[in-house]
Amino acid sequence: MYVHPSLQLAASGIVTRAELAQALNMALFHGLVQRVPAGRDYIASDVVAQKRQVVFDHGALRTVRWPSGALPAGEAAFTRVLRPLGFELQGTYPLPRLKMTGRAYCHRDFPQEIAQFFVSELHPEQFSAPFQSAVTRVLSTSRDPLGPQDVADLEQLTRDGTLPLAQALRLLPQLLQCFDRQHGVFTLDDYELLLAESSEMAWIATEGNAFNHATDRVDDVDAVAERQRALGRPIKDKVEVSASGRVRQTAFRAATVQREFITAQGRVTRAVPGSFYEFITRAELAPIAANDPVQAPQLDLAFDAGNATGIFGMTAARA
Question: Is CB count within 10 Å lower at the N or C end of the chain?
Fold first, then answer.
């Protein structure tokens, strides 16, 4: 993975918020690749074998704006982590077809070099009463992976912008636990009820707050898609293009995973959609001052609601 040179010049015994953010992102990326066979194959044959580097563009996760046991509801479970690490809100993207809202968090110190977070919230109040009851039952057992010491460390990071190495080493595994499923096993009936109205909520029910996808920033997403298709990998049929024309995205279809459910006859296992690996190409923004040799080119780091809606379809349950 590409890592900005400034993030490799650490002061002894001190970890900055940017270094901790980069470490967290790299660990989350690694975890997702282990869960997505098509992503593993791509890394092995198209990255490692060709001696290239992944440019990690963004990671996406899904939340629910609803009472969630001991866990803060919706994106609040993550803003309490992202803000101390140096991420700030850069854009809000209504996703009305999905009854969700997406928000992009970009790193203030290294906006182009440290992967963004695209955090989406599902709004159960826009669904039926039975659906809302099922959401309540599924999320009610949620635990909070952060304890008092973790919260204190995040407050110190917010105040100082750095942590002593020993504290950062202790905190990082705790932060990784936030990106997991926090609720327990639930009934197959509730899963099917959720699935009937929202593939996204059904996905959250089985996968929780795990990375829904991680995105590789490439020079030519169309060429990458053609190569993956020729290799027989499960790539999306079309490339999504933003309204500006500057952001182009496609993805592998979601991996299939086995998850356990409760039935009247006992526990059963079913195949459901898991996470996936995405590709994106970002064009440069037009310079503020034309022909200014001093101004460095800036990528269009924005997202697009239409693109996001299309990409989210990768985890729709298939028969």
Answer: C
